[in-house]
Amino acid sequence: MPNTGRCLVRGSINIDEFFHVPTIVQPGETLSSTHYERRSGGKGANQAVAVAKAGASVTLIGAIGSDGDWVLNGLKQVGVDVGPVIVTHDEPTGRAIIQLTPEGENCIILHRGANYATVSSDSVTSTTFSHLLIQNEIPFSSTLAALAHAHQIDATTLFNPSPMPNIQQLRELPWDELDWLIVNQGEVLTLLKAFQSDRNINTAEREPVTLETPATWPSHPEIKAALLAIASIARTSCFLSEN
């Protein structure tokens, strides 16, 4: 049986570099930024921080480069256990280069960096946890391995399919091992389209279906229909959505 009350996040760790610009740069254009800031990021690290700030115990497994010590220190300060995080000297910490305008428009370039470094599966199997939270910013094989172990020990599994897996990955994903699917509105519609167009994706419907959505979500009938269809694939018939 899994340990009650500890979340394991197997995911990405990035350095986010923000360049504040008056407009998004055009091809061939050189543009000066008005402000620069650097923050820790990555979907895995961000979600681990959210879990810690919510008051739960959380362990993060991932990889950084030798330039990412300050990122780990920041994670420790908010209560994230980063003991299993490995440091590689072969790749820099993953990067997000972000242009941001005063209107909030952005343009992002990602470099996976150390997020695709080899992390032993023992890091997951030797960690005690009751909940597994995974995304799609690390090697898909690592995501599947973590999910398989979590299912074996009967831990609750939560998957945020972002960036969206390709069709082959959607086919390989063991949907019956997922307890919670965390998606935004765009991802709901993208998934539904994939399920409807590819019968090789194993998503047998289950009843009953429970939806949990933010109050701010629109009541558009297409969104509602997509929610019901996607929600039905979760093993415990649960669905969690986020903006």
Automatic annotation (TrEMBL):
Keyword set includes Transferase: yes
Pfam families (alphabetical): PfkB (PF00294)
Gene3D superfamilies on file: 3.40.1190.20
Keywords tagged on the record: Kinase, Transferase
Ranges of residues in domain Carbohydrate kinase PfkB: 8-196
GO biological process, any: phosphate-containing compound metabolic process
InterPro entries: PfkB_dom, Ribo/fructo_kinase, Ribokinase-like
UniProt GO MF annotations: kinase activity
Domain of life: Eukaryota
Protein's recorded name: Carbohydrate kinase PfkB domain-containing protein
